[in-house]
Automatic annotation (TrEMBL), chain A:
InterPro entries: Ald_Oxase/Xan_DH_a/b, Ald_Oxase/Xan_DH_a/b_sf, Ald_Oxase/xanthine_DH-like, AldOxase/xan_DH_MoCoBD1, AldOxase/xan_DH_MoCoBD2, AldOxase/xan_DH_Mopterin-bd_sf. SUPFAM superfamilies: CO dehydrogenase molybdoprotein N-domain-like (SSF54665), Molybdenum cofactor-binding domain (SSF56003). It holds the Pfam family MoCoBD_1. The lineage of its organism: Bacteria, Pseudomonadati, Thermodesulfobacteriota, Desulfomonilia, Desulfomonilales. This is Xanthine dehydrogenase family protein molybdopterin-binding subunit. It comes from the Bacteria. Residues 37-143 form the Aldehyde oxidase/xanthine dehydrogenase a/b hammerhead domain. One of its GO terms (molecular function) is iron ion binding.
Automatic annotation (TrEMBL), chain B:
The keyword Flavoprotein applies. PROSITE patterns: FAD_PCMH (PS51387). Keywords: FAD, Flavoprotein, Oxidoreductase. This is Xanthine dehydrogenase family protein subunit M.
Length: 785, 284
């Protein structure tokens, strides 16, 4: 068993047509062929001989004291290997990133329906299911907290009795200028309350993994994760193991979007492997389990007041945010902190009072999701911007342009924006686009029972971890013994395409085509610690490290070749595909030959990069700083939705969508567009249809027949334009593109619906039912029907 | 493990059904397998009808068409005779599920599942479809509205199967309309739906009308009140609005995870107004 190799293999691309890997070229994704032909091995594809299936008994109740677990019938089911409970865990039995408050297996009480109570190991799936059904939990029900505002009131049931702040996980307060007092100096004030819903990540591949305990005591876990290096520490601590004995192997996840930013199956699999008698263990949540137990985008309640001078100069912002973080921190405090930082959008607002609470409830767990708190507040601020424009009688693009931050301006939290900033270019490009210029013609040509509206939104998205938590990467590049270039990726590629981009970066620097390149996916034993695949940071941080490693290796290769050819120096040498060439004479030495003149220790180059952090002290508490505020690098965007609303049904259909984004220089236009398109599709689902129905902590929509994600027919033709402002600190001028596109669709669509109907729907998603209700109660009598 | 039988002749089918009377009978399985996975159903064995040639395809029998129960929606919507004579059925089946569902799911399955949201059902009601029931000793024909008793319930005894539907070819409708309101454009269960066939005179007066609504009652809802309010009238918003008032008594929508009862009530009437598009000369 143990001699089987379950590593992430060294992927070579020599079987594909070899392609040059120039920076800026639309090189087809090097992972595409294996993925579309089904050859790529995901975490869910690991089996092996003598396999044990592991499964979890879930609480099924939102809040209850666990008095006992009766698994006497379950262990009698033929094919059951073990039933494990919290008593079998010798470590801390706690997981989490900032506050470690989530049990691996519940030891005191259930805090949401998806809590894990017992872990069952079985020879096959059928026995596993039967045994899980036979486990009886003795629960003493407790009153629950199902609403974040309620959770903060005196007398609310407590989710964590040991938390000194009651149900408050984190409160953040930021005041700039004269704060709330500035409202007196405004000529116009608009006020609104927005409610945004929980959103499911809905990845194709549900949470899955495979683990085994080797004879030497090493625990190997293959899993679908964004965070292999953090997982190693979390698993070790929760299970009481030496972290160096835990190895995490991270194949490409089949989608993640933040839902795999942190432990899902990992610790449970580790625990199972410790008790499976050396047999490999597999766990694979089904869709319902993924819904019930996985994290969600935080539902948010947001109170906004935005004030301006008569000429449209923004002057004052007052915001109160309530984020429902569910029963565990996960990354809830960090999500709230990003929301606070972005609460004023990408605008100059000199006076702000921003307050936010991340609140424990017995609802599903709130966690990381593409946009990470920014999506919620962008929905709010971009709608109050439109309300303000209307009140001022100003064009919504002009109002945004008037207040857009430029490099060197301060954001609403008082942070000086030092990075490249293409917001003005984004807005100007949008305003010159036909979809904006010809909006009136398009709107006036609506068919019977249709009304059309055009809405815009701008956004920014901070990237990286903020001022305290080190945002670093360590790249490793190898000249293999057969003369190939192997790139060891320390950051997961969950589908964004960064693994392929890494090859493009290294190939470009080392003058190699795809056929000469090899790739190793993240593995705590083979690749170097490089942080999480999150926060729009992957290619920015790892790319910078990779440039250093590739340049080092390049110099070493050129120098060795120059010495070999007795050239006057490496400046006479050039790397060409498969070889090094002496330019003055045209003589070449193939890399597979040159490498024979290398010792093993020279074939590998490594480089460390740590992202710059904000230098300014903006006076926030150390706790808020720890949670990531302020950021120093931002991507920007402006988008437009052309929406047609059906007066009879209320259905809003997005007919066209335009996104103009500043994510720095684009290394691969195809991969860039895929990120923008995907972000928009996910944002449109959030805007229009994705509605997680939760009743007293229970999710009623646990599958895709009731939880409605967009299909190909629901996503319109998208125009996407890159405003490529060079970012001096980025690899080849790049900034992150992973999240920015997902923030604009909800406010742009809501603004378009308001433009079409003259009424605003303050609660998302904007389902046909909500729109029709608002329309019927407001404007029906005035309409043509 | 469950036994799955795939009879190729009716003789084999009757034998299997006699041997295993508690089998679940299916064709495409797009409804049944979802229920089995959910644990709503746990049949001892399965009998699949899709290999029975008698239940496949569309037959032209002079004045009538026979659509075999195991005909998939994708085959149904490309059948020439169906396209020529039963346009409302084509419109309804074209928005059922998604391409993969239409490739697997069958018209017989849609009928027997008897969901109030079944997309072909309102169309079959307005076309006065009759279903053919077969058993080992013979067959019978009954109107579809008598066959479907309630949500998920049909008048089918043990040992009987739905063999197909009979539809008259020349029904004289010159307006065929189907609208489905779902939560997205494809792969969506109807929140409410409406099938309408009308015969309009050259001057646009309604000579005859048949209308049926889905998802707003335990089974498909028809309303003579609405139909009578249209007959003899020139299609107009006033007439359609007035006809809609007759609908209130007929429908009994529920609140569920997809929509509220009030919304269903509102859109049931509102969908009627869409017929005004035809009066305006919009071609569909």
């Amino acid at each position: 068993m143990n001699d089987q190799n379950f590593d992430n293999k060294n992927t070579s691309f020599s079987y594909l047509e070899s392609r040059p890997l120039h920076i800026g070229a639309s090189v087809p994704r090097l992972d595409a062929y294996e993925k579309v032909t089904g050859k790529e091995k995901y975490a869910a594809d690991y089996y092996g001989e003598n396999l044990v299936w592991a499964g979890v008994k879930r609480a099924g109740v939102p809040h209850a004291v666990l008095r006992g677990i009766d698994f006497s019938s379950a262990v009698k089911v033929p094919g059951i290997v073990r039933v494990l409970t919290h008593e079998d865990i010798t470590g801390s039995n706690r997981q989490g990133v900032i506050r470690k408050d989530q049990p691996v297996l519940v030891n005191d009480k259930a805090r949401h329906c998806g809590d894990a109570i017992a872990l069952v190991l079985a020879d096959n799936k059928e026995s596993l299911k039967e045994a899980l059904d036979l486990i009886v939990c003795d629960f003493e029900p407790l009153p629950g907290v199902f609403d974040s505002e309620q959770g903060l009131r005196n007398g609310a049931a407590l989710v964590h009795e040991d938390n000194a702040d009651g149900n408050r996980l984190l409160k953040g307060e930021i005041k700039t200028g004269s704060g709330s007092d500035a409202y007196k100096e405004c000529d116009v004030i608009v006020e609104a309350c927005f409610q945004t819903q929980s959103q499911e990540h809905a990845y194709l591949e549900t949470e899955a993994g495979w683990a085994r305990l080797l004879a030497n005591g090493k625990l190997e876990i293959v899993c679908s994760t964004q965070t292999p290096f953090r997982d190693r520490m979390e698993v070790a601590e929760a299970l009481g193991l030496d972290p160096t004995l835990v190895r995490i192997i991270a194949p490409y996840p089949g989608g993640a979007f933040g839902g795999k930013d942190g432990v899902t199956v990992q610790t449970l699999l580790g625990l199972a492997a410790l008790h499976s008698g050396g047999r490999p263990v597999k766990m694979w949540w089904n869709r319902e389990e993924s819904f019930v137990s996985g994290t969600k985008r935080h539902a948010a309640l947001m109170y906004y007041q935005l004030g301006a001078k008569a000429d449209g100069t923004l002057h004052f912002l007052d915001v109160r945010l309530y984020f429902d973080t569910g029963p565990y921190d996960h990354l809830g405090g960090v999500v709230l902190t990003l929301a606070l930082e972005h609460a004023g959008g990408p605008y100059r607002i000199p006076n702000a009072q921003l307050t936010g609470w991340a609140v424990y409830t017995n609802n599903p767990i709130g966690g990381a999701f593409r946009g990470f708190g920014v999506t919620q507040v962008t929905a709010a601020v971009e709608q109050v911007m439109d309300m303000l424009a209307q009140k001022l009688g100003m064009d919504p693009v002009k109002l945004r342009l008037k207040n857009a931050t430029k490099r060197g301006d301060r954001s609403c939290v008082g942070k000086t924006m030092v990075c490249s900033n293409g917001l003005v270019e984004c807005l100007e490009t949008l305003s010159k686009h036909d979809l904006w210029k010809q909006a009136d013609d398009w709107k006036s040509s609506a068919g019977p029972f249709k009304r059309r509206g055009v809405g815009i939104a701008a956004a920014m998205q901070g990237s990286g971890y903020g001022p305290v938590v080190p945002d670093y990467a360590n790249a490793k590049v190898e000249l293999t013994s057969d003369g190939k270039i192997r790139v060891y990726c320390g950051v997961v590629d969950m589908g964004q395409g960064n693994a392929s981009t890494n090859l493009q970066i290294a190939g470009s620097i080392l003058g190699q085509e795809s056929g000469q390149m090899e790739l190793v996916l993240p593995d705590t034993d083979r690749t170097l610690p490089s942080g999480s695949a999150s926060a729009s940071r992957c290619t920015y941080t790892f790319g910078n490290a990779l440039i250093g490693a590739a340049e080092t290796l390049k110099q070493r290769i050129l120098q060795r070749a120059a010495d070999l050819f007795m050239a006057s120096g490496p400046h006479e040498m050039a790397l060409i595909p498969g070889s090094v060439r002496h330019l003055p004479t045209g003589r070449e030495v193939p890399l597979f030959r040159l490498v024979k003149f290398f010792q093993d220790s020279e074939r590998i180059a490594v480089h460390h990069f740590r992202a710059p952090v904000a230098a300014d002290n903006i006076g926030v508490s150390p706790e808020i700083k720890l949670h990531g505020l302020p950021h120093t690098l931002f991507s920007f965007g402006a988008c437009l939705a052309a929406v047609e609303v059906d007066e009879l049904t209320g259905a809003a259909e997005v007919k066209r969508f335009l996104a103009v984004s500043d994510c720095g220089k684009v290394l691969n236009p195809q991969i860039y567009q895929q990120q923008i398109h995907g972000g928009i599709a996910q944002g449109l689902g959030y805007a229009l249809s994705e509605k997680l129905e939760v009743e007293k902590g229970r999710i009623l929509t646990t599958g895709f027949s009731t939880y409605i994600i967009p299909t190909a027919s629901d996503v319109p033709e998208i125009d996407s334009i890159a405003v490529e402002i060079y970012e001096p600190t980025g690899p080849f001028g790049l900034k992150g593109v992973g999240e920015i596109a997902t923030n604009g669709p909800l406010p742009a669509v809501a603004n378009a619906v308001a433009d079409a109907l003259g009424i605003r729907v303050f609660e998302s998603p904007l389902t046909a039912e909500r729109i029709l209700e608002a329309f019927a109660s407001n404007g029906r009598q005035e309409s043509s029907i | 493990m469950r036994q799955v039988s795939l009879p190729r002749t009716l003789g084999e089918l009757w034998a299997v059904l006699q041997r295993q009377p508690h089998s679940a009978v299916y064709a495409g399985g797009t409804d049944l397998f979802v229920k089995i996975r959910d644990g709503q159903l746990n049949p001892e064995s399965l009998v699949c009808l899709e290999r029975l040639t008698e239940l496949q395809g569309v037959q032209d029998n002079g004045d009538e068409l026979f659509i075999g129960a195991a005909t998939t929606h994708s085959k149904l919507i490309v059948a020439e005779s169906v396209r020529e004579h039963l346009r409302v059925l084509v419109k309804a089946a074209s928005v059922l599920g998604s391409p993969p569902i239409r490739h697997m799911g069958t018209i017989g399955g849609n009928i027997v599942t008897a969901s109030p949201a079944g997309d072909t059902l309102p169309a079959l009601y307005v076309l006065s479809a009759e279903v053919e029931i077969r058993h080992c000793e013979g067959s019978k024909r009954i109107p579809i509205n008598e066959f479907i008793i309630g949500p998920g319930t049909v008048d089918l005894a043990k040992g009987e199967i739905l063999a197909g539907v009979w539809l008259r070819k020349h029904q004289g409708w010159n307006l065929s309309h189907y609208e489905k309101i779902g939560r997205r454009k494809a792969q969506a269960c109807a929140i409410a739906s409406m099938a309408a066939v009308l015969e309009l005179t050259e001057t646009g007066k309604v000579k005859r009308a048949r209308l049926a609504w889905g998802s707003v009652g335990p089974t498909v809802i028809t309303s003579e009140g609405v139909e009578n309010a249209l007959i003899g009238e020139q299609l107009s918003l006033e007439v359609l609005k007035n006809a809609g008032t007759m609908l209130d008594k007929a429908i009994s929508p529920i609140y569920d995870i997809r929509a509220g009862a009030d919304y269903r009530r509102m859109v049931s009437k509102a969908m009627l107004l869409r017929l005004n598009d035809y009066a305006c000369g919009t071609t569909y």
